[in-house]
User: Which sequence fits this backbone?
């Protein structure tokens, strides 16, 4: 508990993350260090809404994962990169990141990450007005998640969202004419 | 069910012999086919496809024939599959099987070192040595059962082989050992797959579900289920069922299968010399339970399981504490603020302190108060 006392923490995300980073550095637990950096990036984005600081943590995590061969974290990091790019309005970057994870056949990439990336990719396409490609992507995803209710639910929600967006735009276009 | 040797493995041994001794142009292609059977399939691009292909080739000669017929030989109209059939149809009695294993033994362990065609330490050499050991320890009745299942496995190729080698076919049919009644029975079908293959398939399936999160196709799952009923150890079967139920969103069945799996595992490890073994198993059980609860959004039960896991981890610190750590960070940032650090402190220290039990109790009391 000396470390806890030294950090003066009795709660509070920053103290906890600093403690965990310290322990990860001491014990050379690279996976723990990478996960802690990802959590720090998430907290930064959630609490202060500071994308540059969040991106800095993400790049550090990405570097650690690449250097120490933590391939199973690659898809999560790329998804996060896409999320930050989305937050700062760089849709082209975020679409590329989602497309990369979506089309990955790497054995380290979980189906959950691929479906999340596919849904966001399709939604980005729909926002650009490319509804047919977006619907095609969602149909392709739907075939893969039929046996997994949780993912099927996500795909159904995003399909509905895309259809809703298309309907609203058609209605607006009709009203203006 | 066979322990290790199956008709599929005998065919791989024959392919290895052909590949090592012949100068045919298909040798490199054959090495590729052999490596698919000898090396683990974890490097394949699609896990499910690789698993299905492995099981097909183990139980059916036709799928192996499809691959081998694409490898032409120096003889016009002949492929690597014809060479395999020629070799395989010579091994239709026990004497020829003994002869095959003697030849393989001489390939791995020749009298003179310069005659060695394959290194015993290579994957192929390792596979051959394992087969030789299994053949040596095979009981007579089991070797007869292996031979019968090999006959049944070869039966679909009889017409092709008789057309290519009519004299050889006539000679084989005249043998007393070859009784000609080659209709597959339940016993011979059981021999086409070994218990080790089934365990590997189960482990592979669990890996796919755990790492990728992808459920197995219904047909493949049905085949694995039917084979796994004959296994002596059922714990892996329940573990697979646990993941299947989890992915299918069946909370009650997942919980039940998890309990079954760890009951079987604990009873199996009770006789182990290592006293920490059951405790580690218990920790893993609690960790899985906690993750299961969390996935179905039962946060209270999840945190309780995690707390118990932390207490267990205090007594015998293992690598598991880092998994617990990662989960606690997740909880901390989502559902239970302030919980992670208090619970993590004793876990990350290298050895538990003298008053660790008092310490962890105070932490748990504090975390309970925080939740209220």
Assistant:
């Amino acid at each position: 508990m000396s470390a806890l006392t030294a950090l003066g923490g009795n709660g509070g995300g920053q103290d906890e993350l600093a403690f965990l980073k310290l322990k990860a550095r001491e014990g050379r637990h690279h996976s723990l260090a990478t996960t802690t950096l990802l959590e720090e990036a998430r907290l930064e984005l959630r609490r202060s809404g500071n994308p540059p600081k969040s991106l800095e943590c993400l790049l550090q995590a990405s570097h650690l994962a690449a250097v120490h061969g933590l391939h199973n974290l690659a898809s999560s990091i790329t998804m996060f990169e896409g999320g930050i790019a989305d937050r700062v309005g760089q849709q082209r970057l975020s679409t590329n990141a989602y497309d990369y994870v979506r089309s990955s056949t790497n054995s380290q990439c979980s189906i959950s990450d691929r479906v999340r990336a596919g849904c966001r990719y399709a939604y980005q396409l729909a926002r650009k007005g490319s509804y047919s490609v977006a619907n095609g992507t969602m149909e392709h995803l739907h075939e893969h998640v039929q046996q997994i209710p949780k993912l099927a639910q996500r795909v159904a929600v995003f399909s509905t969202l895309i259809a809703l967006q298309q309907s609203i735009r058609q209605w607006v276009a009709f009203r203006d004419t | 069910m066979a322990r290790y040797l199956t008709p599929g493995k005998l065919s791989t041994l024959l392919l290895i012999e052909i590949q090592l001794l012949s100068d045919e142009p298909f040798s490199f292609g054959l090495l590729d086919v052999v490596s698919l059977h000898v090396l683990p399939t974890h490097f394949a691009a699609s896990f499910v496809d690789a698993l299905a292909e492995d099981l097909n080739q183990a139980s059916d000669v036709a799928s192996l024939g499809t691959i081998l017929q694409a490898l032409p030989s120096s003889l016009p109209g002949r492929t690597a599959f014809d060479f395999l059939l020629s070799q395989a149809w010579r091994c239709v009695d026990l004497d020829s099987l003994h002869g095959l294993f003697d030849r393989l033994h001489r390939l791995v362990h020749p009298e003179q070192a310069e005659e060695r065609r394959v290194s015993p330490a290579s994957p192929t050499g390792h596979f051959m040595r394992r087969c030789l050991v299994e053949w040596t320890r095979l009981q007579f009745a089991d070797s007869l059962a292996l031979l019968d299942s090999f006959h049944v496995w070869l039966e679909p190729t009889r017409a092709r082989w008789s057309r290519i080698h009519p004299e050889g076919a006539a000679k084989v049919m005249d043998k007393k050992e070859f009784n000609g009644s080659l209709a597959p029975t339940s016993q011979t079908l059981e021999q086409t797959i070994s218990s080790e293959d089934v365990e590997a398939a189960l482990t592979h399936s669990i890996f796919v579900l755990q790492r990728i999160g992808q459920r197995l196709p219904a047909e493949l799952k049905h085949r694995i289920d039917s084979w796994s009923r004959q296994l002596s150890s059922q714990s892996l079967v329940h573990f697979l069922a646990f993941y299947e139920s989890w992915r299918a969103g069946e909370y009650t069945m997942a919980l039940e299968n998890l309990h079954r799996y760890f009951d079987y595992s604990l009873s199996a490890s009770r006789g182990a010399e290592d006293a920490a073994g059951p405790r580690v198993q218990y920790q893993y059980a609690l960790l899985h339970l906690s993750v299961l609860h969390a996935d179905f959004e039962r946060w209270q039960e999840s945190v309780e399981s995690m707390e118990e896991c932390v207490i267990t981890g205090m007594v015998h610190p293992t690598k598991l504490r880092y998994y617990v750590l990662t989960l606690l960070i997740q909880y901390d940032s989502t559902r239970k603020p302030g919980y992670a650090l208090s619970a993590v402190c004793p876990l990350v220290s290298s050895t538990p302190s003298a008053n660790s039990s008092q310490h962890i109790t105070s932490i748990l009391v504090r975390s309970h108060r925080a939740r209220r």
Notes: Residues 336-342, 344-372 of chain B have pLDDT under 50 and may be disordered. The CA atoms of residues 13 and 128 of chain B lie 7 Å apart. Chain B has two domains: 7-190, 272-371.
